[in-house]
């Protein structure tokens, strides 16, 4: 029998999908780890599961306990769904500027949503700092346990990728994998898979969006950022605890102009409806394949499903206002019925 005990047990073991166009373009095998096939439709379900399991193991959460996190999206959805499946409540603190689709999805996933005005990290009312304080306050009056998930600096996050994503990639390719590359939000995915696969001789790359400072740090030793990106969930300006002890072998800075046509082609030519970070990842895989040369196998992450970006990534007005490319099929009016 192959029955998942509950939803939490259905996280992970995602397929590797060959990306036809990227492979043909480079003469390499470019493979996408289909993380959008997780129950919460993103790679963050793995981190959510490991963060919760770690808190339970350490006695910090008991049945009916509460998980608090400041997040703009996928981590909140993952924590809410996996948390509900394991018997926990979730409180998600979100900047009120985030898209309605994400707020709706987090509420639908069963979390209590606390909206705060958008503020930079140095402001104590920044959503991440607010969520840490809220967790502390709630913990004072709870006997079932309240944890702050703290995805950026809680290394249970990258442990998920050390123990599951990395080994899955190794097994699925029969060890025939030369490279792995992805972008960093918390850095859990790139560092965790890196730590699992670099000791086996796999080269690991970072694909950094504009506006992030990691590419500059890994190539010059200085945190500098320039430009901007509409991609959500990625783009880091510091070495989080999850990134500590990890160094990429390759690093590329990828613009939205390079990444978005890939997102649109994946949708119209390969049936893959992806979010923007997947475009950054696949663009990075193509750059790394060109640098390594034909004949290599390179794996990247298909991070999340595109429907949660309908009003931005797949909205011609939004793209035009940002000066970004609009694919012809997106611009077409719907066919009218005579
Ligand atoms: N893509 C998307 C859409 C995300 O939400 C995230 C996580 N915020 C990432 C990529 C990056 O994952 P990680 O936090 O493991 O670096």
TrEMBL record:
Name its pathway: Amino-acid biosynthesis
Example GO molecular function: transferase activity, transferring alkyl or aryl (other than methyl) groups
| Keyword set, alphabetical order | Amino-acid biosynthesis, Pyridoxal phosphate, Transferase, Transit peptide
Judging by the UniProt lineage, the source's domain of life is Bacteria
Check the record and name the SUPFAM superfamilies matching this protein. Answer: Tryptophan synthase beta subunit-like PLP-dependent enzymes
| Alphabetical list of Pfam families matching this protein | PALP
Q: Which InterPro entries match?
A: Cys_Synth/Cystath_Beta-Synth (IPR050214), P-phosphate_BS (IPR001216), TrpB-like_PALP (IPR001926), TrpB-like_PALP_sf (IPR036052)
Cofactor dependency? pyridoxal 5'-phosphate
One annotated GO biological process: cysteine biosynthetic process from serine
Name the PANTHER family on file: CYSTATHIONINE BETA-SYNTHASE
Q: What is this protein called?
A: Cysteine synthase
Can you name the source organism? Puniceibacterium antarcticum
**Phylogenetic lineage:** Bacteria, Pseudomonadati, Pseudomonadota, Alphaproteobacteria, Rhodobacterales
């Amino acid at each position: 029998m192959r029955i998942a005990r509950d939803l939490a047990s259905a996280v992970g073991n995602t397929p590797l999908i060959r990306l036809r166009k990227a492979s043909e373009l480079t003469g390499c095998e470019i493979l996408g780890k289909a993380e959008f096939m997780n129950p919460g439709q993103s790679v963050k379900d793995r981190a959510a599961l490991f963060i919760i399991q770690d808190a339970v193991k350490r006695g910090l959460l008991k049945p009916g306990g509460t998980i608090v996190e400041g997040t703009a999206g996928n981590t909140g959805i993952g924590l809410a769904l996996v948390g509900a499946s394991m018997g926990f409540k979730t409180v998600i603190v979100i900047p009120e500027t985030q898209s309605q689709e994400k707020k709706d999805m987090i509420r639908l996933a069963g979390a209590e949503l606390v909206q705060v005005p958008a503020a930079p990290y140095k402001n104590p009312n920044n959503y991440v700092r607010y969520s840490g304080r809220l967790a502390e306050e709630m913990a004072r009056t709870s006997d079932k346990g309240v944890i702050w998930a703290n995805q950026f600096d809680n290394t249970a996050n990258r442990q998920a990728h050390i123990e599951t994503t990395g080994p899955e990639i190794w097994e699925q390719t029969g060890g025939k994998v030369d490279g792995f590359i992805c972008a960093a939000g918390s850095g859990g995915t790139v560092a965790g898979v890196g730590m699992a696969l670099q000791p086996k001789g796999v080269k690991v790359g970072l694909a950094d969006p504009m506006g992030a400072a990691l590419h500059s740090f890994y190539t010059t030793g200085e945190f500098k950022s320039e430009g901007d990106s509409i991609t959500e969930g990625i783009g880091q300006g510091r070495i989080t605890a999850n990134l500590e002890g990890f160094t990429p072998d390759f690093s590329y800075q990828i613009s939205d102009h390079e990444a978005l046509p890939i997102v649109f082609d994946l949708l119209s030519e390969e049936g893959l409806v992806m979010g923007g970070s997947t475009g950054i990842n696949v663009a990075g895989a193509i750059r790394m394949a060109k640098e390594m040369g034909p004949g290599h196998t390179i794996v990247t992450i298909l991070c999340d499903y595109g429907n949660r970006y309908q009003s931005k990534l797949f909205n011609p007005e939004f793209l035009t206002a940002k000066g970004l490319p609009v694919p012809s099929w997106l611009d077409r009016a719907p066919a009218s019925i005579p």
